[in-house]
C-alpha cells in the first residue's frame, strides 16, 4: 500500500510542477493546487498508514498519529484560501493586461520570427 501511495504523491508532485512551469496563469493556479494536495498527502502519510485502527492510543494496538491529520485539515483550509486568492489575482491580471500569460506578454510564434527575417 505504501508503494502505491508514494507513487501517487510523486505523480501529483510531478504534475503540479509541470503545470506550474507553463506560461498561463490558469495552469499555474491548478499546478499550485495540485502541489498543495501532494504535500497534504505526504503529511498525512507521515502519521502512519493504518487501516481499521483507532486514532487514539490504546493498549497493544497499532495506531496512527493524530497530529499530521490535524495539520492536513489546517492545510486544506489554508490551501483553499490561497487558491481563491490566486484565482482572483489571475482574473485581475487577465482583465488588466488582456491576456493569460504569466509575464503579461504574448509569446511570439516561431513561424512569425522566421517570416520577419
From TrEMBL:
Q: Where is this region: Disordered?
A: 94-117
What's one Pfam family here? Oxidored_q2
Basic and acidic residues compositional bias, start-end: 94-108
Q: How does it sit in the membrane?
A: Multi-pass membrane protein
Asked if the record carries the keyword Cell membrane, the reply is yes
The main place the protein resides is: membrane
Q: Where in the cell is it found?
A: Cell membrane
Residue ranges crossing the lipid bilayer per the database entry? 6-21, 28-49, 69-88
Record flagged with keyword Membrane: yes
Q: This protein's superkingdom?
A: Bacteria
Keyword list (alphabetical) reads: Cell membrane, Membrane, Transmembrane, Transmembrane helix
Matches recorded under InterPro entries: CPA3_antiporter_subunitC (IPR050601), NUOK/Mnh_C1-like (IPR039428)
What are the record's GO terms for cellular component?
Answer: plasma membrane
As for family, the record states:
Belongs to the CPA3 antiporters (TC 2.A.63) subunit C family.
Q: What NCBIfam families is this protein classified in?
A: PRK09094.1
Q: Return the protein name.
A: Na+/H+ antiporter subunit C
Q: What organism is the protein native to? A: Alginatibacterium sediminis
